[in-house]
Amino acid sequence: MPSKPAPIKKAAKKEPAKKEEEKAPEPAPEPAPEVAPEPAPAEAAPAEAAPAEGAPAPAEGEAAPAEDAAAAPPAEEPKAPTPPPPDGRRSGDWKAVNEDLQKSCRYIIKNQTTGDRLKIRVVAVNAGGRSPPVTLPEAVLVKEVADRPKVRLPRFLRQRYVAHVGDKINLTIPFTGKPKPVVSWTKNGQPLDTKRVNIRSTDRDSILFIRTSERDDSGVYEMCVKVDDFEDKASLTLQIVELPGPPASVKIADTWGFNVALEWTVPKDNGNTDITGYTVQKADKKTGDWFTVMEHYHRLNATISDLIMGNTYKFRVFSENKCGMSEDAAITKEEAKILKTGIDYKPPDYQEHNFTEAPKFTTSLSDRATTVGYSTKLLCSVRGQPKPKVQWMKNQMIIGDDPKFRQICVQGICSLEIRKPGNFDGGVYSCRAKNDHGEATVSCKLEVKQPVVADADKK
Prior knowledge:
The chain is mainly beta. The protein has helices spanning 5-23, 31-35, 39-42, 49-53, 58-76, 455-458, and strands at 117-118, 121-122, 125-126, 129-130, 134-135, 140-141, 147-151, 161-164, 169-178, 182-187, 190-191, 198-201, 205-210, 219-227, 230-241, 250-256, 259-264, 275-284, 290-297, 301-304, 312-321, 324-325, 330-331, 336-337, 357-363, 368-371, 376-385, 389-394, 397-398, 405-410, 413-418, 427-435, 438-449. The protein is elongated, with a radius of gyration of 59 Å. This is Myosin-binding protein H. Residues 1-94 are annotated as: Disordered.
């Protein structure tokens, strides 16, 4: 009996040992998951990488808090960093800038001091631990956060800007950028002539100013704004125009019937803009007056029609552009005479009409009344061929050249003016017209009244 219990006790002793061995590996996987979250703070210094990778043993798992305690001081060192060397690099004090692991391959490091130079490295982490770091070859200079420069060219300057000679040019071009961009201007790729063009720039815009524009100010102006290595450019085209010159020449190419063919050449000076048309005028040699026969005409030749036979003409041509018509014109040296060619005029046979006529009054005299001292006038009209002779009579007596009366007869209108008539100037007045074919007479009665006297005057 005593010999049997021994193996039983040995078996009892071995079973707990097996259980302990089976239980022993169970704690080992527990620290393994703890290693994965620790690499984030472990990036602060390369020295933390080794303990983080050798942590699978349970015995070392118990020592891990001691290592974490030892690693705590380097994590606090960035709060009071030692002054960096002159080049801004911190020697050996690597610090994790992201508290949590980043899945993205892009990260922004914020809240840095302007002027510092930082060396940057990146470590990849997975469940198996940390990769060797990859470091940028050169230190990065921390600069002020800047807005890229941008020229805000106004819409009306995106097309050709046209002005007349003598105009004042004042163009404002806004821009953005931080810090204040450096502004520069060129004209046709060359520096500006500061005697002709003034540039005034502020933090927000630049002004191009020309006091009195000339044609030489035309060209392509380019504005450039620059911040560090970034820049933006915009260009505007300035065109200064004026009235064109006259056509270089004009001539009479042909004359036939009542028509003249003209030809001319473009002007030598177009006023720095396109020619929009031509104005053609003619003048009769007899009068010398110029009349427009064509305007806004686009061709370099024209046919002038409906000219008068027997007349001699000269022609001139003006140039036109958007500023208006040229001050001078090109005039033909030759003259065009409209001849009576190919026409044999034979007047028709007819009997001449007899226009003779005896005098006849078309308007008779009318009776009138006037007041003593107030002049009056008698009127009538007569016709006849040949022109009749007119006589005025008072009470059948010819008035003649009496200065009291004024007699006028113009184009058949006859008038007799009685100047300040008196009490004895009333009566019957007659007008008689007479020629070789007869005579005619009209009469009227004139009454001369006394002026009305007020009662106060009577007293």
